[in-house]
Structure formats: C-alpha cells, structure tokens
Design goal:
With 467 residues, this protein is mostly beta strands. It is built from five helices and 19 strands. The protein has one domain: Porin (Beta Barrel), CATH 2.40.160.
Length: 467
C-alpha cells in the first residue's frame, strides 16, 4: 500500500494541472485583495483534471477520471467562481463505483445559488456493523483471513446501489441570512453481497466463503424488516435557513456557517410507514490565527428523526444542503468520522463534531496557476442520540431459535451505558490546492477505540476539505 500511496502523490503533482487552460485570459490584480492576499485574479475558464486515482480504507484504491471546470468571468469575483462543473467516473478495487455530475453557480439565477447533482453509486460491499454503535460488537478478526477466527471478508457487508438526483437553491433573506429549498430522489437497491460475482475469475484460495453475514442475520432476526431489506425509492423535499459570513467557501479563513433545515422523505405502497421528517442543525466556525496561513476550523451538528419511521439504509445517509462531496455517510468513514469504519454509528439520530488546525506551509505559482501546500491535524467525534429500541429478551430468544450455534455476546453488548459513548478518532491531513478551489486532500486517521476500525492504515484521498 505504501508504494501505491507514493505513486498517487507523484501522479497528482504531475497532473493536477492539465493543459486545459487555453481559454484563460491574461490575469489582472483582483479588487478583493483582502481575500486573495494581493495575488493576481483568475479570469475566464480554468480546467483542473486528474486521473481519479484515489484511496479510501473502506472503499479501496480508486481508478478512473475526474475533471472540474471553473468560470471566473472578468475576475472580479475571484477566488469565488461564477460557474463550476464537476464530472467523475471511477471504480474501486473493493467494487465501489462513482458516476457523478455536479453543477454549482451563484450566477445562473441572479442573486441565488443553485446546485444540481446526478449520481449513481454502486457498492458491492457496503459496510454494516449493526445498530447503535458500541451496542453492536465489531469483531475485526472475522474479516481477516490470516487468523483462525476468520469467517469472511464480506461478513460485515451488504450490497447497496444508490441513485441520487438533487436540485437545491439558496436566496437571501437579509445580509448574511439565507433561505434554502431543495428537492430530489434517493433510490436504494440493496441486498446480500453477490458472492458469485466477487469470486468470478479468482483462485480458489482467494474466493470469499458463502456464509451468512450480519445483514442476513439481522433480516432473519427481524431487526431489518421485510419491507426495508431490499431498499426503496424516496422523493424528498427540503427547506431551511442558513447564516454564512465565511470569506471563502472552499477554504475559509474566517467567519461562521450555520444551518437548520427540515427534510421530508416520502415512501409508498408497502413502505408507506417510512414517510418521515428529519431535522438537521450544523454550526461551523473558522478562526484566523495568523492571516490565511493558520486557521482553526471546527463544526458541530446533529441529525434527528422528528416524525415517522426511517428505514435503516436511509439512516446511513447524512442530509446536507450542499453536496460538496460525493456521499456523506452517517456516521463513520472518510466523509464524517475519519479512521472509523463506515456506518459504525447507525441510529435514528446522531451528533458529531470535527476540529481541525489548518496550516499553509508553502505558496507558489506554476504556469500562472496559484498553488499552496498545507497540513491539518484533526480530531473527529460522533455519538448516538436516538438509538434503535432493541428488546434484549426478544433478541436472545430469536437468536437462540434462528442461529443456535451463535453466541449472542459476539453480536451485542446490552450495557446501556455504551449507547451514548462517543466514537473518537484523530489524524493528520495533507492538502495540495490550485487556484484556491481545486483541492487535493490526503487524510490519515486512527480510531481511539479498537471497536471502531479494521486497523490503523486508514488513508483517504479525496477532493476538498471535509467542511
């Protein structure tokens, strides 16, 4: 893994600027000198492209292509762009796919910010480690085929294909206060891991054993209902308010971003019980410690189920007003709690916090493009706030009947003090940025509790800051 990691860094440095800047015009001094530190502003079109060679400890090595096209107009808005187009097509060695188009603009509709996303995200091995965080025991040895306790690398997995389309708009109430509205569709197609597909073409010693995993056990035990085990389609409506005093969206050096919004998700037919209403609140604060070279950034937030019922697969989705990253898992993984296994904190409601110190170590220009290299040590935390109601007596009886050879203590810890115990991780990030907006992010993180991850080689290579 180390050789591949070094190779990616080399590829990124060589290809972070591709010759697509032919439409860019001669630069001039920006009027927003406070924001740009007297750097020359970009005008016209710029094109950033990368081979989509990334790594995520949960998803594996990623291969494909991505491109981000920015339009800066006459340069008067720099470093804010007028239009951004993002396209990505990629697949990973752990059979996770990304096929995405994303558009973002504050100028398409005058005085409004508009975003549009269309994504298809097939995932042959989506993580599932049970409900309520530490209430569910995570036995990493069952996933490691180099020890006597090995069961299957797919034991804590299920198949999840997600189709998402979303359109969101933001307008001004007064000053820094904004209103937000959006609509979209989430389509989940889930089921057991396709062992035959994953084993196709593999040597016998490398094939996955065809055993009953945790997802199948939850279905048999009735913890996952029959009308949610295969997924479903859920149109949604969203509305809320935001306060935004940040000086720059991609990497703020000062200001506050806060939002509060409601999401109503609908369901039909046999899934009618899954109509639900959720509340999200989020607070981010950016404090300049030394100009734009040292910044303290932190956020706290929560997602809560206010009414109705939410199927388990939608509780893995973190609602957000702006889809800066391809997917927001809730909670665990590179898009929420770095270093902690994906979807580790699975409940009806949760809270989270992330703290980062962001340092810019060097700034330089190459071919009239502005670059910087930075680091960011960080601490992530998350916890259950609305747990699933698990009837210990009923679960023990059901497991004894359905799986008499299973030891219930291998799957559950019913100590109620564990339900609200925070999940913590810490790590370090490396950032390589071009023209303030195109930011290559490399994060390493480790959990503070061995129940939360597969080990300590937890690397994530993505685009942009976490928040």
């Amino acid at each position: 893994m180390n050789k591949k990691f070094v190779l990616f860094i080399i590829l990124g440095l060589l290809s972070v600027w591709m010759p697509g800047n032919l439409l860019a015009q001669e630069v001039q001094q920006s009027d927003t000198t406070a924001q740009t530190n007297l750097k020359k502003a970009k005008k016209g079109w710029t094109f950033g492209a990368l081979p989509s060679v990334a790594y995520d400890v949960d998803l594996g090595f990623q291969y494909g292509a991505l491109a981000n096209v920015y339009y800066y107009g006459d340069g008067s808005t720099y470093p804010e762009y007028m239009h951004s187009f993002y396209v990505e097509a990629a697949y990973t060695t752990k059979n996770y796919g990304i096929f995405r188009f994303f558009y973002d603009s504050k100028f398409l509709i005058p005085n409004h910010r508009f975003t549009f996303d269309a994504s298809y995200l097939p995932d042959a091995m989506c993580d599932f480690s049970g409900f309520n965080g530490y209430t569910s025991v995570f036995n990493n040895d069952w996933r490691k085929n180099n020890n006597d306790d090995y069961v299957s690398r797919a034991f804590y997995k299920y198949r999840r294909d997600l189709f998402r389309t979303a359109a969101d708009i933001e307008g001004t109430i007064s000053g820094k206060w904004k209103w937000n509205a959006g609509l979209g569709v989430l389509g989940y197609m889930i089921g057991s891991v396709d062992i035959d597909m994953l084993n196709k073409g593999k040597k016998e010693e490398n094939k996955l054993p065809d055993v009953q995993g945790l997802y199948e056990r939850y279905v048999d035990w009735g913890l996952i209902k029959g009308n949610e085990k295969n997924g479903g389609w859920h149109p949604y409506l969203r509305g809320g308010i935001t306060y935004d005093s940040r000086d720059f969206r991609a990497n703020p050096t000062k200001g506050i971003y806060a939002d509060a919004f409601l999401t109503y998700s609908s369901a039909f037919g046999e899934q009618a019980e899954y109509n639900n209403l959720k509340l999200n609140v989020n607070f981010r604060h950016y404090v300049s410690l030394y100009r734009d070279y040292a910044v303290l950034a932190y956020r706290v937030g929560a997602q809560s189920l206010l009414a109705g019922h939410s199927p388990f697969y939608m509780n893995t989705y973190h609602n957000t007003l702006f889809l800066q990253r391809v997917l927001y898992e809730a909670l665990g993984g590179g898009n929420s709690l770095r270093g902690i296994v994906r979807n580790r904190v699975l409940a009806n409601g949760f809270a989270y916090a992330n703290v980062e110190f962001r340092f810019k170590l060097a700034k330089f220009d190459i071919a009239r493009q502005h670059f910087y290299i930075g680091i960011n040590p960080f601490l992530d935390a998350g916890m259950v706030t609305q747990p699933y109601e698990l009837d210990e007596e009923n679960i023990r009886a059901t497991v004894a009947q359905k799986n008499p050879d299973d030891n219930i203590d291998d799957f559950f810890n019913f100590d109620k003090s564990l339900v609200y115990l925070p999940h913590l991780s810490a790590g370090m990030g490396l950032k390589i940025a071009m023209n303030e907006n195109f930011i290559l992010s490399v994060d390493w993180a480790a959990p503070l509790n061995k129940q939360d991850a597969t080990g300590y080689a937890n690397f994530y290579i993505k685009m942009g800051y976490l928040f």
